[in-house]
Amino acid sequence: MYLMKSGLRSQISALALNVWLEAIRDRMLHILIGSGALLLLSSLVIGEMAIGGRGRVVQDMGLWVLGIWGLLAVIHLGSNIVRREIQQRTIYLILSRPIARPTFLLGKFVGMSLVLLSIFCVLCAVWLALIRLSSIPLTWEHYWALAFIFGEWILLAAVSLFFAGFTSPLLHNFFLVGVAFLGHWSNDLRLFALNADSAWLKAGLKLIYYALPNLEALNFREAALYNKAITPGLLLEGATVLIGWILIFIIAANFIFAGRKLP
Amino acid sequence: MALDWIKVSFSVRQGFWLRPKLILEGIDLSVPGGSITGLVGPNGAGKTTTIKLGAGLISPTSGQVLIQGRKASEAGAKEHLGLLTEIQYTYPHLRLREWLDMLAGLSGLKGSGRTHGVDHALDIVDLRGQADQMMGTLSKGQIQRAGLAQAFLHKPSILLLDEPMSGLDPYWRYCVQHILQGFKSGGGTILFSSHILSDVERLCDRVALIKKGCIQWTGRLADLPRETRGYEVICRVENPDLLKQIAPEGKAEALPTGEWHVSIPVDQKEEVLWLVSAGKITLESLLPIQDEIEDVIFGFSSDSNRAGQRCI
Predict the structure, then answer these.
(1) Mean pLDDT, rounded, of chain B
(2) N or C: which end of chain A has fewer CB within 10 A?
């Protein structure tokens, strides 16, 4: 049992390292990180011109950039993560080894998470440096907001892996962006559903509300910005939404990939 | 048996209506342990599909493929399997060592065993000097050798090789033949497909002829009905006119060493031996001229087709 577990670990880490090594040598990713860092730096300049003051803009813009850049990174990494392996047939030499398909997918997911963690660390370091430069006091709410932004990145990576198993890169990107945006409008969708007159519209909106992850449960940016206390209940709800949806999407991705035929 | 294809059929769906197209039909093939079996056939015959089924990459539409008695699709069955694909599908942004290290990890190698496995595989194909090179910068022959290295990484007991000599220069073709023979003498089993029949003839104990998705014939090469069309004689003779006697239609050719070379029909062999025993000629060599392996194999395969075997 121990040997089996350690063999699995070795397989997952080998795949994850491969994804990470390939990604860190990818010029597009360098451009993405560079542009994110530049945009964060530009918040200093914009902050000087803004009415709300530099501190507010540095925080607001920083958290916004961290959110959006995660989506962009997942779009870039995820659209080809499975497809390229199948199209370029590199998957043959992987699956001809004693490796189960779920392990392959898990390795890809861990690798993608490692790449996202690297990007997040760089952007986060830039943002924290700007916060210090602007003499903004950091609170626990800031750290929780950052942690859940990264959690959202990982959830989007799981969503991406699910769509990458059966769609083209274009559709993958479309669905991923759809999930990200509708996920953030989730609370509004519920309100619309409650107020809608048509039974069909009510049912449709409810279906979307329950079928998509409620990404607003992971959004503590406002609390960080206005220094509002985050209750343990909210954190628990966020963590449950996060872990639950990650598991759902990974299991669904495995289910689809298990039945996928190789060319 | 190390590998078994039992009544295996495989079809793909294609076109707008996803109509099934049969690629292999009812293949029965067994590869005994410790042997080299050559899979021979024209393009599109189904060689690569047969190998993919053997590696468990695709599942048969009907029938079953077994590796040492276990279903090929089971991850555990592939522990002792090495695969070399016809085209090497690599990651151009990875270094050769990184690629091999990843594949070693996937084969379950860990720690120093993994490093040693990678170094050993690199040594087999003499690529230690290129280990830190990006794979995108390797030549075609080096990529092919890298492919062979990854197949040997985890010391498998069964190798499935799809056109292993493709892209190799004559020196490396010779080396790979030695590597494969060494693998076999260590108890390894090999199934390989090839267009180069001289390689098949040199390496294989058994051959499976595949055409249009059907196995036409399997057996030892020696069992193929190969006709002797004549003999090639090299001899020394005082009176060259004697050579006209044994080769009325053949042209005797004087060699720089003072010997004569002449091709004789089958029925003149006795005459030559009589002349030798009578001391009229000194025989240096007498070699049968047999049908070319290509003529035998492809002639045989078209004969079986004509015999009415149902094929795709």
Answers:
(1) 88
(2) N
